[in-house]
Protein 1
Amino acid sequence: MLVLDRDSRVALMALAACALLLLGLIALAGESPLRVLAILIGDGFLTRAGLADALVRSIPLTLTGLGVALSFRAGVFNIGVDGQLLIGAALAMACAPILGPLPSALALPLLLLAGTLGGAIWGGIAGILKARFGANEIIATIMLNYIAIQMVSWLIRGPLQEPMGIFPRSEKLAASLRLPILFDGTRLSAGLIVAALACVAVWFLVARSRYGYALTVTGKNADAARYGGIQPAVIAFSVLCLSGALAGLAGIVEVSGLHGRLQEGFAGGIGITAIAVALLARLSPLWVPVAAFGFAGLYVGSDAIARLTAVPFPLVHVIEGTIVLAFLVLQIMPKAKDR
Amino acid sequence: MDLMLLTGLLASGVRFAMPLLFAALGETMGQKSGVLNVGLEGIMLVGAFLAVAFSVATGSPWGGLLAATLGGAAMGLLHGFFAVRLKVDQIVSGLALILLGLGLSGFGYRLVFAGHQTIRVPGFERLDLGPLSDLPVLGPLLFSHHLLAYVGIFMAVGLWWILTRTGLGLTIRAVGENPKAADSVGIDVDKVRMRCAAFGGAMAGIGGAYLSTAQLAGFVEDMVAGRGFIAIACVVFARWNPLGVLAVALIFGIADAGQIRLQPFFPQIPYQFFIILPYVLALVALAGSAKSASLPAALAQPYRKA
């Protein structure tokens, strides 16, 4: 039988309190928790439409979750995924008119590359601030988020606005620059393949390369890393670039695969969910898509809950917060057994 | 720019500075004791929501303030429980607070206020000091703020005094600099840290309350808009000195008030470039001050008894 020490018991009680809080909130909205749970699981995972929608949403969550996992592994807290995603999408959209006339087989990869580059630049700014000036990356990346939101707001009302000039949004991407839809009747695009390839690439980087080793060592013990000839500042800068690159790729994949154009709030809330995704995957690249799919389903289900019941949508963030706390509690469990 | 305009700018700068000031003062005490809370944003959101909800319910902004303070303290304690008691990663625990705060405030707002188009929120009255408030320049600048603003300034001085001149301050600093030494002279490290974490949460709650019931009048989802993180930047830039925090918060407040007032003067410049000014300022401040010897040595490091 598993014997738990006092800390673990207290931790489990804290989790139980969080679960009670969730039930209390649902009761407060005057709904039965069972019905809400049934809708969450039923609509999020068990219907064909829900499943397809969850897959669609898991694409950006996988890409950004990979980026967050990479940076967290190195002990670098990239909270600015949203900004990197926006700047990636914006830079790619700025390049779109040049790429449009090219054959699709050439233009589409270049478009994705431009998005990746944009995200890397935005992440790299935080990277320079951290590596060169020692600025805390959490605050730096968040500030860059707000700056990116305003920059996109300006771009879609200014230089990148559709020629009609009525709505604050960009022109639609040319067909040659759209990621193809995988299955007719769904919105699932080839972005799914991009995300899968990214998983393999990041897994290889983490598990099989010297760089991945350097990341993990730096994250576990920066002093030991320095002793081993690894420069934590270089790691911090490079991992913020990489993490931003994945976020930027997610941004242009969202635009090219799903929305077709740049508009306001097209990817709101992905960044904060990406953190929960990466943590739930325990920062392991191969678990990221699984966690991303789980959270995507949670979002689809929460949409349905907000539509069908009196329970407001932001409950999903309370659930996410609870999951992050659960992750922390699980972390101390094995330690409790060691003692 | 004429004098009237400048006075107005500085006066609203003071108003804009207050949410940052309260949150940053609380964070200063937490960090001084070794507890890093990156979740101020979430706590401020909850504080802002509770303040509005309970101001409406009780008919008085003070009822709202009380609720926000208690709600903030509860979230601070939750963070303390994970960061201090369970000794898990303080940054991740803070991130959880952001999610919880975003969820709880948004949930509560939609539940309580959905469908109501306009709700009159009983806000804080400006202090009227009679002839003093009517003084030109000095009146609007110094003698016409909400009572809460004076409380904030008083707290900055008081906390500075506590930290640097009292035994309690020495205890807090010892716990944040060298918990082992503090432990060896009989200080209960975790208890001090828990209390500082709760205090920090309560102050962030007050900061949120100020935002929704004194600076603005009402709650909008995600209304804190990064101020929780700017507050942390204030702490770093002020080198963990409460008086410095007051000065830095005022700089940010004036920058924020200034960007709004500058917009009409430069219609040819897109307004978005003004909105980003406080955020850019925070980046510059961070870059200019990060490598500081004032950083509490045991910040974000849990203490385990040997």
Protein 2
Amino acid sequence: MKYSNEPMLDMFIFETTQLIEQLETAILSSEKSNCYTQAAINEIFRIMHTIKGCSAMMLLDDISSLAHAIEDLFYFLREEKPQNVDCCTLSDLVLEGVDFVKVEMEKIKNGDAADGKAYSLIDNIKAFLAVLKHSNTSGAPADTKEHNSEKWHKNCVSREAAPPSAAINFFKAVIFFEEGCEMENIRAFEVVHNLKGIADEVYHIPENITDNSKSSEIIQREGFKLYITTHYPYEQLYELLMRTVLLKKLELTEAESRDDIPALSQAAHEMCARVSEDGSPGKGGNGQREADYAEAQHVSIHNSIISVNVNKLDRLMDRIGEMVIAEAMVVQNPDLKGMQMDNFQKAAWQLNKIVGEIQDMVMSIRMVPLADTFNKMHRIVRDMCRKLDKEVELEITGEETEVDKNIIEHISDPLMHLIRNSIDHGIEPPEERKAAGKPHSGRIALEARNAGSDVLIIVKDDGRGLNRERILTKARENDLLLKPEDDMSDREIFSLIFLAGFSTKDGVSEYSGRGVGLDVVTKNIEKVGGSVQVDSVMGRGTSITMKIPLTLAIIDGMNIQVGSARYTIPIISIMQSFRPAENDIITDPDGNEMVMLRGCCYPVLRLHEHFNVRTEITEFTKGIFIMVESEHKVLCIFADELLGQQQVVIKALPAYIRSSGKTRGLAGCTLLGDGSISLIVDIAGLAGLSEPG
Amino acid sequence: MSNTVENVMEMEEDTQKGRFLTFSLDRESFGIEIKYVTEIIGIQTITEIPELPEYVKGIINLRGKIIPVMDVRLRFKKQSREYNDRTCVIVVDINDISIGLIVDSVSEVLAIPEQDIVEPPKMNKGLSNRYIKMIAKVGNDVKLLLDCEKLLTGDELEDLGKVL
């Protein structure tokens, strides 16, 4: 994070970027449900308030006044709860604001002055607020109609604003009393008693507060949970609850419907006590989600997260590596040889276990779930749908899949291009879809899952699919065909779309047509050692699969010995190892050695010759062959012996050595348990070398 | 404010200025500016890397950091010598590249006043002393002060070009 030398500015940028991301998610999810819930409004308000404060402190007046304008808007929404708010325009306005802040942040990161002007944006927001205020004060049904006639997309902003007959609010409250205040159950009872005045229904956990002495403990530990339905608004309830004697903490969240209550009844089936009148829990749609949302918010406060510079983690990992080596040096110290030391061994095992655990933990720290990257796609889908007049639903699964931090950075761009491509080319306009008998809105499924040491990220749409003929024609025109057409499989043909300069689109649009996008996909994915695959059925859709290694930093390796040197071969590329019979080895007139295995002939590479290592074992029958594969090329590597399998941490060779440019066949190096260095063999490089020419 | 920062920087610079770590190879004594030196370690197990110039002996594991090591004897086209207890690796940091220099032994850190440092004499052959930046007189001894950057960058191709 080399944004600036000033730690304050760094902190500001980091915080604001995070806030902006939160804000975006809140807006998008609200937009999707077509309703700004009280919780969402509160959150947006809070975020804007923070941004305003921070940016004012950093003397970024434009950002701060923009944030101020949005804050005003949401303050109005929160306090006045206007009935008819045009959600779409509201989202648009706030998102525009978000974009503005993003651009400014980018400028600051690059060390430029944040000189963007937000006047027009602020004016728009103010105008919108004025309209809102106006319609709210008049508040007459006539006004509503007028709005309807304008075909405003109408949504109620909060549930309190619903017609008075249905104005029942659902709340969930958790009350914690001061520690050591004693008689928690009695105090809880008092709360319930007080609530009777304003609440229609009250459920609480624990159920039996007056008779059961254990409930005191529960309240002490988990808080006193209340589920309340009332005609009164949030503020009044909050005030009432705040008046509770010896109150330590109150969490009052609003639920949208009764659904919260069944959720409760599931969790605490028989614990539900009914204080006032009967009322069977009804069913609703959003309540559950809202409750979950509130819950998630609540949890996130407790799981406090800090952000750490990746460099620090790298260094930490180095140190851990050292520790492992130091441990081995102590435990396997030659001075200890032959001594009988039970206690020492016990202690050594303990140390070994702890060190191993620490190592795992450090690795897991570097792993980041894909959720953030995936969620960014919502925004892209939304914006593109608006612009292109298409309807697309983005479905995300497996976003909890974790990938190394370094790799995540490389996925974001390709993913964006794939999604854009799917919306632009894949998904048809609504009329066309209807004609083809497909559902009105298109679907893009974004999926991630683990497959061995790889992660698969799949982007699948139900659009029109790839047109084989058109791709071929285009490829012919641009002279991109490397093989005779008849020899190409569907997959190979589809892969043509990833070539630079390939676009079946005739015109260049804002989103695609230049033939750059998908080229970026392959480039980026290959950079992290992954691959891309396309499957498509005409008229049914396309599915693009990116295969990415879980981590760049660790591989499963097989250590081998050649002379005094040790090498590591990635397990993924090993097919088998074997000792050949003497007559299986063939030498051609040029002196190229080959080995025959199960009727196939494979080239042999003597590692000791290739790496110029002195070794006793030069006869094929004394050493071992390791058959490796890379991109369909098979090669048999001859080494002295196998040492065993180990997870190794890949380290790059020093820059000084890399710059000499003579490291072909080496992918890096790693530290073995005893502190010595093993060189990692680059199978792709070696396989390339064995190719004739 | 910025002024004081600069002053502090200068002060720090000053404590290192004119100080040299001296080491010996054969009979000669060399000096290396102390600002380049990060640490001195004993000789370690070296992992060889194929296809590198002879003087780059390979890589070592310096507490989890992998750094290349260069045999200064070979670099200066001297006879190589078996490594022993006194053999040292001077870890230097030159333009963000860490590298270990294998030397016969490390002597001491000397403060050499500026007036005792002179330009090396111009040789007719031209290329013989290109690693030597300056020559310092310390008492009766002469210390050859190395040009660290040249140590890394002076590449073999250049040599070959002149030989041919």
